[in-house]
Amino acid sequence: MTLDTVKVGREYRVSSCDAPLKIRNKLETLGLVPGEHVSVLQSTGAGLIIGVKDSRLALSHDLANCLIVS
After folding, report:
1. Domain CATH code at residue 24
2. Complete DSSP assignment for 18-60
3. Residue-range definition of the domain harbouring residue 32
């Protein structure tokens, strides 16, 4: 499943990233690497607020759709 389809408030593990290399590298520098735990804190029409490590990140639905989680 992709990160934009999961339930708010639950924790998931990043499995892979289905994005072009440039975008994948940017997401990895933000800590969104395979094996990392993330949680969706809020979902809005504009995108998601996620928690990763000790940070909060805002992602568009398009970017969240590239992240495969389990």
Report:
1. 2.30.30.90
2. -S-HHHHHHHHHTT--TT-EEEEEEE-SSEEEEEETTEEEEEE
3. 3-69
